[in-house]
Amino acid sequence: MFATAEDGTVLFYDTKKAEKPKGTFVFLHGGFHGNHTLLKHIYSSFIDYNLILPDLRGRGDSGFPREFNKDSLETYAKDLNIILAQERVKEIYLVGVSFGGLVSLKYASMYQVKIRALILICSSYTLGKMKRRSKILARGIDLISRPLFEMTNKWKEKKVQNVDYSDVSFPLGYGLKNLKTNSIRTLLKRYRMTVASLRFEIKKEELNRIRAKSLLIYGTKDAFFTREIQEELADILNAKLVVIPGAGHELYIQNALEVTRQIKMFLG
After folding, report:
1. Please, what sign has the CA dihedral across residues 124, 129, 135, 137?
2. What confidence tens digit (pLDDT) does each residue in 65-116 have?
3. How many domains does the structure of the chain reveal?
4. pLDDT tens per residue, range 237-258
5. Quick check: is 51 in a domain?
6. What are 14-42's pLDDT values in tens digits?
7. Residue in 245, 244, 39, 239 with CA at minimum distance from that of residue 124
């Protein structure tokens, strides 16, 4: 399925319909990974719900915006709202993974659609103390990749449609499959969009608008979001915080069974 964003960007999303749906789940993937199929190990456990599975702009099968590294977090939230309006959905369970969690929080603070449950996996509202370090690292890599990006200006872009990344090892297998199914030019664009998104964070006054029942799932070895940030967000949202010992930032892949178990327990 396709929708058109306010700026003309073409947005792809998949849908899966249940015979007798208990409701509608929306799953938003992370920024670096760029394809909803990476979340297959989680959303395949909710086949008794209708599913909406977007590819964020510039990732997966969605198109790139004209100015591909100048979007705001609000832009991503508006994209989701356009998709839900097109599907005529007014009540959802919203699951955001990594960067998708920031989009979920922004969406929940901006729109009045009823969110029956807000679930964030290895995500938060800011990188906190890690933000400065991540921005320095991203800036350094961006400076290195910029000449390559300019050099490939006339290279043909390639993006194979409907690629399923859920069957590969992470991160090596995922990276190799990306190289096989996308051109260098396409991957550089995606990378630079992701680097640009590291500056995003949500103000606490925006978080205070969110009234949805919330669950945070976090791994003790997450390299991006600290325990301190998770506990702070849980306090603001009055959310349940589940900590998985030994799990890293890819717990939605490597600990998918435990993640789905926690979500189902939370929903009762």
Report:
1. negative
2. 988 777 899 999 999 999 999 999 999 999 999 999 999 999 999 997 899 9
3. 1
4. 999 999 999 999 999 999 999 9
5. yes
6. 999 999 999 999 999 998 777 899 999 99
7. 239
Q: Which tokens is 6 given?
A: 């306010």
Q: Sign (positive/negative) of CA torsion 140, 142, 144, 146?
A: negative
* Residue 196 within a domain: no
Q: Which two tokens stand for residue 35?
A: 């394809």
Q: Are strands 10-16 and 50-54 parallel, antiparallel or unpaired?
A: antiparallel
Q: What is the dihedral of CA 104, 236, 249, 53, to 10 degrees?
A: -20
Compute the CA torsion angle 78, 84, 87, 88 (nearest 10 deg): -110
Range of the domain at 113: 2-129+202-267
212 with 118: CB under 8 angstroms?
Answer: yes
Would you say 212 and 95 are in contact if contact means Cβ atoms under 8 Å apart? Answer: no
Is residue 224 in some structural domain?
A: yes
Q: Compute the distance between CA of residue 74 and CA of residue 226 in angstroms, rounded to an integer.
A: 24
What CA–CA distance (Å, rounded) separates 184 from 150?
12
Residue 183 within any structural domain of the chain: no
Using an 8 Å Cβ cutoff, are 100 and 59 in contact? no
Q: What CATH code is carried by the domain that includes residue 73?
A: 3.40.50.1820
